[in-house]
Amino acid sequence: MSPSEGKIEEFFHTLTQQDHHPAEDVHIYAGDFNAHVADETETHITIQEGHTIPPRVRDCHKRHAPSPPAAAPITNARISNPQRGRLLLRMINTTSFLILNGRFEAADNPIPYTLQRQDEATINDYNLIAKQHFSKVKTCYVIPRPARTLRSKSGPPTDHNPIVIHLLLLAKSTTQGTGNTPIHQELPPRTKYHSSKLKDVTNRKKISDALEDQDSKAEQAIQSLQTSLQQESINATVRRKGQRNHCVRPASHSTENHWNNGISRQKGPDRIFDTKKTARQ
Length: 281
Hints:
Blueprint: H1 8-17, E1 26-32, H2 81-95, E2 97-99, E3 115-117, E4 120-122, E5 125-130, E6 137-142, E7 163-167, H3 201-230, H4 251-254, H5 256-261, E8 275-277
Antiparallel strand pairs: 1-5, 1-8, 2-5, 3-4, 6-7
């Protein structure tokens, strides 16, 4: 996960603002955040939740602490690992996400470093999940390398250690129901609106044109209903037998399907690590 330098704050802001997933959907953010959080814990974990959410085995080296909460605003284009750590903590505290790696080790286990190169070892890669889905995580652990060596032909092709996560998810039934048994259908692939796509001129024009078109249609429908009401061919409060009520929706609601069927299906960097985990039968 490597957003362009100078856009790190925007990246974390996007993750925070786009946290509107359906409650049943499990999303995991995973990757190399280049962020140091040391021994700071998520502030949204209550005392009661602390009995079921274990603490992390952490890298508490003083060089790997995040920047202070009240640190001055970031002005440099290149953001340091401690600054990234503070941005990461703000994001997970706002969205109630948890850092998973380090929570499933015994207290006396070695620190689960995710980066090891020569004399350097630290944690800057993370697997994150919403707190409400923590019970679905069976385990999460880091596979360490046997020695702190640089990448080589015989060893791993990277100096980052892989993180393994095991989820327990219920499959969605697609079996035809019989008798009084309801029919459960597999939900269609979910699409999501991303405000960041409006920065693209073409996308912005598409959604603007769609809104204007729906506004025009809604205005015509309203005028038709007003005429019918004046001619007393319909009643504003009584539904006549055999007739269906009319509903005029706002243009912003009417264009939702247009957006979901078109623009939001375009791929972009803000969708790469928003991973939907769905178990299927």
